[in-house]
Batch of 4 targets.
Target 1
Amino acid sequence: PILASAHENGCIYLWSIQGSLLKEILPFSKYPPVPLTVLRTDISTKMLLAGSKEGHIMRWNIVSFLEDPQNSKNQIKEELCWRAHSTEVVDLFHEEQKNVVVTASVDGSVRLWHALNGCYLGYFGQPRKFEFLDISRLILPCDVNNFPIIIKEESKHMEKKKKFEYPLVLDKDK
């Protein structure tokens, strides 16, 4: 068994039952570290999910690390980061059958997200039924304007799901 703790400095620490520190994880982001407010794993402990004070959700693959925590080659891979709320995330969980992450915020909203790509599925209290099959539409809640960021393992850089380019062009006729 391994214990995980989330901290004010934005780090996650993984501990052995004996109390020795096994690993320190700092979320890979273009933003400075922010306090983490919630930490969960799925039932099969394949993924680790964390929520932040600024409304972000981060997802790591922890399978190879848990197989042999002492082996330094077995890494924890951050795979996805998305903005779920405009305020602090107070709770979250992963529903494995539907592959959905449910998040709750201090603003009182409870939202559903696709666990593998961070695609927004809806919120509790909406008039329409949840569509779990159509994850191709990239819609966002009204208070969030950033699409999920997929973190590429090989290059250790971030890639946004959709890129929009708005170059400035000087038109002398106008």
Note: The longest helix spans residues 63-67.
Target 2
Amino acid sequence: VVKLLSNKRSQAVGILMSSLHLDMKDIQHAVVNLDNSVVDLETLQALYENRAQSDELEKIEKHGRSSKDKENAKSLDKPEQFLYELSLIPNFSERVFCILFQSTFSESICSIHRKLELLQKLCETLKNGPGVMQVLGLVLAFGNYMNGGNKTRGQADGFGLDILPKLKDVKSSDNSRSLLSYIVSYYLRNFDEDAGKEQCLFPLPEPQDLFQASQMKFEDFQKDLRKLKKDLKGVELHVGYSPRKL
């Protein structure tokens, strides 16, 4: 047999072939008719990623032309033959690209939208939430009281957010209580009428939401949107359709 692929590439295609357990006609039916009942999206993704590249396909087709009229011509090795048959499916790359994009587009947009909604909700809560303002007001009031005798720091009009993690490190004279626990207990006694009851609500954003939002980067959002726009452009080129802009 004729081997035109590198050993590594031939091995990768061979592994894919052995894992499929599908006839080429099943693959063609799935691609042409957008039917995922037999060939699932994961398999289509693997086929798309392992499809013959232009230089490989050129070598395969060149061999086919040169051996067409020869009686004792050697046949292609199985991986080469598989890639060639795959290339015979009408518009294989374009069709599979569109199928895969269609399957992930809504999920990708929803994922970005959920993250931005969470970020917007947290920003609104931190800016306008009465519980947040009351807690921060207590931090400022107690800080002003404790620094009352200090001309430099007494009666400050505000404070840096970097001091918030340090509240737990400020201890009482007997070292039994932190300033953080005192502020929490003071808030519960004087501001929260439902403290200790079932209807009591946490006055600040949920810690897991804050953590999730702290991990978000606008560069990642921009990167994801650029990829979606690029893929949308690819769909437009493949099928001659111009989707609405993101």
Note: Confidence is low (pLDDT under 50) at residues 241-246.
Target 3
Amino acid sequence: GLVIDGRTLEHVLDDSLQNIFLELTEKCRAVVCCQATPLQKSVLVRLVRNKLKAMTLAVGDGANDVSMIQVADTGVGILGQEGMQAVMASDFAVSQFRHLEKLLLVHGHWCYTRLTNMVLYFFYKNVAYVNLLFWYQFFCGFSGTSMTDYWILILFNLLFTSVPPIIYGVLDKDVSAEILLQLPQLYMMSQ
């Protein structure tokens, strides 16, 4: 692990030492930056995001964390005693730090699997419809006539675009929350 304070971080974030610092952080399992200014926090997140091409998550509970939350790919605001600024600037909000584990491991896993399945579903829905139009053109001799009325097309898209995602989003949970909390490795395996 690496623990670095704000004064040292000021020197490390200089252009000449950034690459050396990033090489050192890659060898660590945990890096803790304490007593850092809001600008240092956002510069550090931007540095990791741009140079290491890593997905970044910023967690903060006050106004001094807003710039860091906004720079990160995903920002989580914790409703704290310092006010609502971090919560208002974040993508997700939790009331206490202990809820972060469930947000990441359980809801993150479920969201990831739902999104991937929905992308596949919409792709195949559109392939089926375009395939139908393609074969209809052979039937009508490429005359450009409409295969269906417009209201049927609207009904098809309304039905197959709204109902299955709602049902899938509400009912689908591939793994229970208890198992996901017991086996954090499942989050990486789903990706």
Note: Residues 2-95 form a domain with the Rossmann fold fold (CATH 3.40.50.1000).
Target 4
Amino acid sequence: RLEEFLKKEVDLELSTLPDFEERVIDVSEVEQLMNSINAIPAPCAPVINPQAPNAATGTSLRVCWGLFSDDTVECYQLCYKPVSNERHSDEQAEHTLKVKETYCTITDLLPNTQYEFWVSALNASGISPPSERAVYVTAPSPPTIKNKKIQSCENAALVCWESRDINPVDSYTVEL
């Protein structure tokens, strides 16, 4: 019977035209729900590393940090300011840099000066809480030898110098 039915030509004409209403459907709530399901969470706070040996010059510091989770991170926001013992330390200039890597070399710093650093991670969902703050110190400037005060004899020499740093230097190494 099916074979006979399929051999027949069928003419399907609608006797009346369909009357459709134009409706605008608001799917913004559904879109929001769908986006929230697929959205990545804001990252966790990064962990800033303590200052590494030989990571400083008189005018620069290399700061490193890590992210101990599988969070998706687009970039990092590194903030720093000089450490001050004065009452108005909150008014110190705070600097912010956007960085793609988990390290950054900051230049144009003052010699023999402490700087406080903290970092946050960013992705499409938002910004992480800041890391703990870490204090890094730039290397002191080389001292200036006072040529007019140098004295010597057969078995000894007197060499005088002065520091060009604002903060006191812990020690000096004299090489002959």
Note: The chain has two helices and twelve strands.
